[in-house]
Design goal:
mainly beta, OB fold (Dihydrolipoamide Acetyltransferase, E2P), five-stranded antiparallel β-sheet, 3 helices, 37% strand, 14% helix, 18 strands
Length: 280
């Protein structure tokens, strides 16, 4: 059976002026054969030779073979460069003669030429290969990582209910929970994180922050920078609302209170009824 979107070994069963036809066997019917264009055929090829080819559809929507290997295959995930954009979507360079189509409705944000985007390869309702930026269901869960591992990946989706979804190594499923995602990081960004849990299904839970005792020094420095931006007097203290602290400090209230406590202990600040002041 001919498999679009995958590589397979097929035999040369017929030679024509414009290429050769390939099939699983010499007895295959015309519907079970696929053309390898003349430009892809080496000079010494013979009937009965076996070739490893990738199958996709050409610009006229005909199934066709190529000896070139694309950057991703069916249901795989990878980063591809945007070659061009049109009124119906974008086209991605994936290493074949015909660029890969990324429809508007499969984009999680509008892409532009030369962007590197994380996509998966699927077959649409008309039987054509297309790309999607909605990669959640295509990511693997059998990662080699354990709790406290350091990982890198692409942030591909942000959910107001769950947090930020990350493709670790651009192939493994991971989530930064809402309470851990406190930075203003746009979709498509490369992130470095710490594994704080490995779920029973193999999916990873991540944090962008270090453990509390390791994070407190950098948090203290961050608080001091904000205080300095207010000319040494922060117009709220550690009793401010979590929303105010998150907006101004990009950290949770507990993290802010730990940092303020550290600064107070080391004599760098004083806390008043309505503010925090720097001590020179």
């Amino acid at each position: 059976m001919l498999q679009i979107g995958n590589t397979q070994n097929l035999k040369v069963v017929k030679r024509v002026d414009f290429g050769v036809y390939l099939a699983e066997s010499e007895e295959a019917s015309a519907q079970e054969r696929v053309l390898l264009p003349k430009s892809q055929v080496r000079e010494n090829i013979s009937i009965g030779d076996t070739l490893n080819v990738f199958l996709y559809k050409d610009s006229k929507d005909r199934l066709i073979a190529t000896v070139n290997t694309p950057a991703i295959k069916l249901h795989e995930v990878g980063k591809l460069r945007v070659a061009s954009t049109t009124s119906i979507g974008a086209f991605l360079d994936w290493g074949l003669e015909k660029d890969l189509f990324l429809p508007f409705h499969e984009q999680t944000y509008r892409v532009k030429p030369d962007d590197e985007v994380l996509v998966a390869l699927y077959v649409d309702k008309s039987g054509r290969l297309c790309a999607t930026m909605k990669v959640y269901h295509y990511l693997k869960t059998e990662s080699p990582y354990m709790k406290e591992s350091r990982v890198e990946g692409t942030l591909y989706e942000i959910s107001g209910n769950f947090g930020a979804f990350v493709a670790v190594d651009d192939c493994y499923s991971a989530l930064i929970p809402k309470q851990e995602f406190i930075k203003d990081i746009p979709v498509g960004s490369h992130v470095t994180a710490r594994v704080i849990d490995v779920k029973d299904d193999g999916k990873l839970t991540l944090s962008l922050r270090e453990k509390a005792y390791m994070q407190i020094a950098s948090d203290s420095d961050a608080v001091m920078k904000v205080i300095d931006s207010y000319d040494g007097v922060l117009p709220f203290n550690d009793k401010a609302s979590p929303e105010t602290i998150r907006r101004e400090m990009n950290m949770s209230k507990n993290e802010f209170k730990r940092a303020v406590g550290n600064l107070l202990k080391t004599g760098r600040i004083e806390i008043t009824e309505k503010s925090i002041r720097r001590i020179d």
